[in-house]
Design goal:
binds zinc ion; 12 helices; 303 residues; 6-stranded mixed beta sheet
């Protein structure tokens, strides 16, 4: 009997330790080497007055309910809603797309199940046809496959802008199932530090979650400023609470550079303190998506 109790105690402690290690740990450090130079971004677009984008739309492609601690380490087992979205940066009759979602087959095969929004995906496909440019927060399938599966891929080819690091991540792009040989034809964007991509839009490389992750700064004509950070965190609570994804996800599932991502989380936290007017937009944060579209700050349909 004593042996059984001893075994149960050791097994319980072991499971508790694994839970803490893989689900709870993941705090951002006190200091960070990652710089988000908002003043530099502002300087790069200061001469764009008159040509700045005028509004932003966001459409929903998918959503899943997942335990909170799988999204933000150590936040318990209540459910959080993760969304899969794409954005349209509108300049009058022209627009740029950020990310392109994924089609239903891939969403259900590789994704975490949940709901697929065919109407949102169709809006993205229509928008790809008329977009002036398409770029990506990073190369993961849930952000790029909408382009890979586009029926008019040959026609939209010239406006797809991968970065060099995104294009070199062949393993990830293979999951999005781009046609054989298609990716070899691109000349990627290459930049160091800050890069003005278009009027009111600046890129900042942020390798960590993936090698090709980047932040995208957008300044609108009304002065509103947004920083699209893709998947550096999966919920804005990660930035507020200074916590990344749990190690079960970060290390075991994604194989991301956890220490680098946590430094970026610290940098985003510091940015939110110092520049509270700059809205940090987190791709998969269902609460923020509802707030931005519900308040009308982002339109909820593509035009
Ligand atoms: Zn993602």
């Amino acid at each position: 009997m004593r042996i059984i109790i001893g075994f149960l105690v050791i097994a319980t402690l072991g499971l508790w330790g694994l839970k803490i290690y893989y689900l709870d740990l993941g705090s951002a450090p006190e200091t960070t080497a990652f710089q988000i130079d908002i003043e530099g971004m502002r300087a790069l677009v200061k001469d764009d007055k008159g040509n700045l984008p005028i509004r932003i739309n966001a459409v929903l492609v998918g959503s899943s309910e997942v335990p909170s601690t799988m999204v933000v380490a150590g936040t318990g087992f209540d459910e959080r809603r993760m969304v899969r979205v794409a954005y349209q940066i509108v300049y009058g009759s022209r627009y740029v797309l950020i990310d392109a979602g994924a089609d239903e087959a891939l969403d259900q095969k590789v994704g975490m199940g949940g709901t697929f929004y065919a109407e949102g995906y169709e809006q993205i496909q229509r928008a790809l046809d008329r977009a002036a440019a398409v770029l990506f927060t990073h190369e993961h399938w849930d952000h790029t496959a909408g382009v890979a599966r586009a029926p008019n891929l040959e026609r939209i080819y010239a406006k797809i802008h991968f970065t060099k690091a995104q294009l070199e991540n062949k393993t990830e792009l293979a999951i999005a199932e781009f046609p054989a040989g298609f990716l070899d034809r691109f000349t990627p964007i290459e930049y160091e530090g800050l890069h003005r991509f278009a009027s009111g839009m600046v890129l900042l490389g942020a390798a960590g979650h993936t090698p090709g992750s980047q932040m995208i700064y957008v300044r609108l004509s009304d002065g509103a400023e947004y920083l699209f950070v893709g998947d550096i965190v999966w919920h804005t609570d990660g930035i507020r609470l200074l916590r990344g994804r749990p190690r079960a996800i970060s290390r075991l599932l994604l194989g991301e550079e956890e220490d680098v991502v946590l430094q970026q989380v610290r940098a985003l936290h510091n940015l939110s303190d110092a520049y509270s007017d700059v809205e940090v937009v987190v791709s998969h944060d269902g609460d923020q998506f509802d707030e931005l579209t519900g308040s009308g700050r982002f339109g909820s349909r593509f035009e």
